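An instance noted here:
***
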Amino acid sequence: MHAMLIVLAVLFAGSDTAISVRLGSKENLADGKATGKAIEQGSYFFLGANGELIAPSKIEEQPCLANLRFPYTEESQGMLLWLPIVLKPFVEIASDGTITLPERLISVETPIASPGYLRRKDIHLSPGLLPELPTRWPFMQDGRPVPAPRGAILCRSLEKKTPPAVPPENATGWLLLGWDGALIAPVLGAPMPANPLWVVDGGANRGIDLVFGGPLHSGVYAHVSPDGEMRYGEKRLVALPLSAIGRQLSMIAPNSEANDIKSYWPFFKDMERTRLALMPPGYAIQPFGISLKEITVTVDEAGKVDVHLRPKTVY
């Protein structure tokens, strides 16, 4: 949903005033060069709705891939985790592995605002928005931080060895919810944070429910109908609900038609889409705006994954 959400942040130690950022400026474009190589090398995270950091799996070129990736770079004194789009430092990882997120106010301006989107917005970033953001970087070598292995999950509850959540009845698996509504399936054997999103089988012809499983949130996050259409919350609304950090970073106007765009679950056990399938391990998708007319992902009983894209018409 990178076209719908714009992420903005910058880390300037000691600054108490608002930081101004203009998207598309020469400075903005120049800052992006530092992170392009990191993304190419897989040095990035998906950010969970509660602050979890989820490293990508080894699966390349996934369909519907969650596009808002948070790259990190190795610096002389540690590492920096960058926010996408604006590509300014977001989180600092010190040489001893300490992770810090400063409180900042960012005033953002877009040169041209599309209908339904804000042209200007003040964004308040603070540690309280991300209660699961880890405090320590566990991957060290020769006394300094090194890149995370593929599929790693970092968060505060795993640091504290919080007991995993108890699955509800008929739970068939668990996911992690991204800050922007992305859904991330853990790699096989990944440890479970304290706030998973349970995948609960509703029975024949009833679809599945995605249910909050941790102490930070409760209830049904989304219902997936047998045809793959997703509706959110107990009232089954079309509009994607945003996390606390998502509400700060979103540039969508409250009355925008973008709030009426549907979400879809593209995973089925057959091309005829008669049976929903679980997300395969290691996949990360952004269901907002997915069209089942464009893509279907089949997962057979043995776990074999095939991606079926609608043929492109050439005129």
